[in-house]
Structures are given as structure tokens and as C-alpha cells.
Write a structure and sequence with these properties.
Elements (H helix, E strand, L loop, with lengths): L9 E2 L9 H7 L3 E7 L9 E7 L16 E7 L7 E10 L2 E7 L1 E5 L5 E9 L3 E7 L23 E2 L6 H10 L3 E7 L9 E7 L3 E2 L6 E2 L4 E7 L7 E10 L2 E7 L1 E5 L5 E9 L3 E7 L7 E2 L2
């Protein structure tokens, strides 16, 4: 990708923090990290990372908390069966055990004890991401929750709950994409907004007009081949402040609040592309620019 004024906001190469060699080796026994984004990579960005889970992991990350909100994502790698996870994931929320067998978004508000996260069964690759609203991923030890809820099942979303505006767009959207899950504060109280889809065909998109948001956003385009995760298997045209960019590798884009972005056009889709947007706001609201 050629260098230009706004190319610094587009991350296409893995630049993970300085994990120990032992930690990297252990991760590679069950997963393959694709991309990592935080304020150290793109100044001003919040943190997000994505991976493919490839094998089971009976004993995963231990219980911990964050000082900020987090959303965890687990998605089927098969766009023809987007809700069948193709595996079984065990996760604990405030010590309460949940087993996930469908594509899911899990909201962990600031201070919530979450994990262990164990991959009980991985029949086919599972796409995973985690996103926190802070600039870096910082783990803190667990603390006692003195006001536990009866159940935290409502923090886990496995069915599509679109806002009315998106439902109206569905006849057009469904011609080139499959929306899988949507989360905002109307779906899970206090959650921020994230939506996840598969792009399946070349097309103009419903995001064909330049617009801005009042909050920061991360946009992701991830190739659907776990064996070659850096290869987008397609070509996407994206505009940042009127500057044209062609994306042909898996990528995460940081879009600061107020930055004009789009149109977004799918020039070529040789194989379904995993797509997500994350906005640090309770709802997805865009201000169109003429």
C-alpha cells in the first residue's frame, strides 16, 4: 500500500506488543494472531486485536479485569453457516460458567471479572477478536464483586438484533453481505457499538456516502482463509478525507472522531471477507457529508 497522508491509519502488518518468546510460542500452539492495533501503533487509537483459533486449549487465559469496557468476539469461520461456531468455548463471567457453541459477542464492562477462557473444542477455525476502549490492553488482578447478578447470560449475544435503520437497509445489504451480529446499548445495557458481517460479493455498499462520527471508530477487513490470514482475497476501495486507498491485505483502520471516511466499495471479493466496525459510543450514528 503506497504511503500517503492518511495511510498511517491503516494497519496491514502484525505489530504485536513485545510478548515474551514463551508467550508467543504458547499462543502459536492453538491460534494465529492476525493484527493488533493500539495507541502505540496508531496514535490516538483504542486497542483491538484479532486472531484465528485453530486448536483446542483446555487451560486458557486466567481470570482478570480491566479498567475499561471490553467486547470479546467468537465467530464461525464458515460464511455458509455463520452462527454455527464449529467448536465449544468455555468462559467465566464473575465466576459464572458459560459454554458458547454459536458465534457470539461478549460484553465485559469495566471491573468485571472475566475468564478463564478455555477452547474446549475447535472443529474448524474460529475467528476471534477482543477490543477495549482504552489505548492499550492492560490486565489487572481480579477483585471481589460484592454485588453479583443472578446471571450474566445477558452479556452474551448470539442472535442478530439490528436497529430499525439497518433492517430497512437489509434488502440492499443482503445482496452482497451477511450481517451476523450487532451489539449496542439497546442490545446489552451500557455496551458500546460493534457489528460483524461477511462480505460475499463485489458491490457498492450502503456506506457509499462520506460521513463522520462523533466518536472514534475501528473498521476491519479480514481475509477468510485461516491458512493465509494476511491475504484479503479481494480488493476494497476506501476513502479517508477524500484520499483514495486500495486495500488488498487483511486490515484494521482507525478512524478518529470527525474524520470524513467512505465511500466504501467492494471492487473484488474472491472469497468471503470478515468485516467489522467498532464505535466507542452506545449507538452507531453517522453524520453524512456532502
Amino acid at each position: 500500500m503506497s504511503q500517503s497522508k492518511y495511510s498511517k491509519y491503516i494497519v496491514t502488518d502484525l505489530q504485536a506488543p513485545n510478548f515474551t518468546g514463551e508467550a508467543v510460542a504458547r499462543y502459536n500452539t492453538f491460534g494465529r494472531r492476525i493484527l493488533w492495533l493500539d495507541k502505540n501503533i496508531v496514535p490516538g487509537s483504542f486497542q483491538m486485536n484479532c486472531s484465528w483459533y485453530l486448536k483446542s486449549l483446555p487451560k486458557g487465559p486466567p481470570a482478570h479485569t480491566h479498567d475499561c469496557d471490553e467486547i470479546l468476539g467468537f465467530f464461525s469461520g464458515d460464511p455458509e453457516n455463520p452462527y454455527d461456531l464449529g467448536g465449544e468455548i468455555e468462559i467465566f463471567l464473575e465466576g459464572e460458567r458459560h459454554v458458547i457453541t454459536q458465534s457470539a459477542l461478549v460484553f465485559s464492562p469495566a471491573g468485571m471479572n472475566h475468564c478463564p477462557l478455555n477452547l474446549l473444542r475447535v472443529d474448524r477455525p474460529i475467528f476471534h477478536f477482543s477490543v477495549v476502549t482504552a489505548g492499550e490492553y492492560i490486565v489487572k488482578p481480579t477483585v471481589e464483586n460484592k454485588n453479583p447478578k443472578p446471571t450474566y447470560r445477558d452479556h452474551i449475544v448470539t442472535e442478530l438484533h439490528e436497529p430499525e435503520e439497518r433492517k430497512k437497509q437489509a434488502p440492499v445489504y443482503n445482496k452482497y453481505a451477511k450481517r451476523v451480529l450487532w451489539m449496542d446499548t439497546d442490545v446489552v445495557t451500557h455496551a458500546f457499538n460493534i457489528n460483524v458481517s461477511w462480505y460475499c460479493k463485489a458491490s457498492t455498499t450502503v456506506d457509499d456516502k462520506p460521513h463522520t462520527h462523533q466518536q472514534d471508530e475501528i473498521i476491519g477487513f479480514i481475509g477468510g482463509d485461516p491458512a493465509h490470514p494476511e491475504d484479503l482475497n479481494g480488493e476494497i476501495e476506501m476513502y479517508l478525507e477524500g484520499e483514495r486507498h486500495i486495500i488488498n491485505k487483511s486490515a484494521m483502520l482507525f478512524v478518529p472522531a470527525g474524520m470524513v471516511h467512505c465511500p466504501l466499495t467492494l471492487l473484488r471479493v474472491d472469497r468471503p471477507i470478515m468485516h467489522f466496525t467498532v464505535v466507542k459510543a452506545p449507538h452507531y450514528v453517522k453524520n453524512e457529508k456532502l
